[in-house]
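Case 248 in the screening queue. Each case pairs one protein sequence with one candidate compound; here the compound is 1,3-dihydroxyacetonephosphate. For every case the pipeline is the same: read the inputs, emit a complex structure as tokens, and attach any notable structural observations.

Predict complex for case 248.
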Amino acid sequence: MQPRKIAAGNWKMNGTPADIPEAHGIAEAAAAWAGVTVLCPPATLISQLAAEVPGSALKLGGQCCHPAAKGAHTGDVSAPMLASAGATFCIAGHSERRADHGETDADVARQCEAIWAAGMTAIMCIGETLAQREAGETLDVLAAQLDGSLPARATAANTVVAYEPVWAIGTGRVASPEQVAEVHDALRARLRARMKDGAGVSLLYGGSVKAANAAELFALENADGALVGGASLKADDFVPIVKALAAS
Ligand code: 13P
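Case 248 output:
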């Protein structure tokens, strides 16, 4: 089984209805290739985008979810709520959630279960800090995060894994192709060892991906796409990344 090529955009805490034209531009590019294009806008925009870009090749995703389906959790959003708004993907374990909200590997594993129960695909994120990389701990840290955050019933159909080194997010400092290759090859081996269809799990890289560096990353054997933050906010920045993936 070949991994699906996936170009995913994470708008983080950016976007109001005034930004919806950007999503239309991204949807046009999504329709022009055979891979998967996912946009994770703020939750407030999902239902409007689902209504305005109906039948679109552009898939929508949430950025996080509470592990419970409903209840007294002020300010949180649940996986069934995201799915009912039109999301078919949801990010789990982004480093900004882990850092800002103290989400642990066990929390992320529960979120994956909630995402699957709601019929969505989890985009599960892991990544080392600069201190961990400089201490030579990168592969050990990532292996522990993967094992702790990904429940046993993960499959290539319900899960995408995103490697996002914390030091590369929003810094303009992209990991080198050699660094990405080393990590993605190790993650692929670990996924193959623990899952029957581990060879088919899409492995995305995230962290300062831009049109200028996308092609060299997508040329790597185990880089099946990208999870893009800042460069996904504007169609003019994101569409060339989608095209680079389509051409890879
Ligand atoms: P940037 O592309 O802005 O570095 O963000 C990456 C990211 O965190 C995507 O989830």
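Case 248 observations:
- Strands lie at 6-10, 36-40, 58-62, 89-92, 121-126, 159-163, 202-205, 225-228.
- Residues 6-247 form a domain with the TIM Barrel fold (CATH 3.20.20.70).
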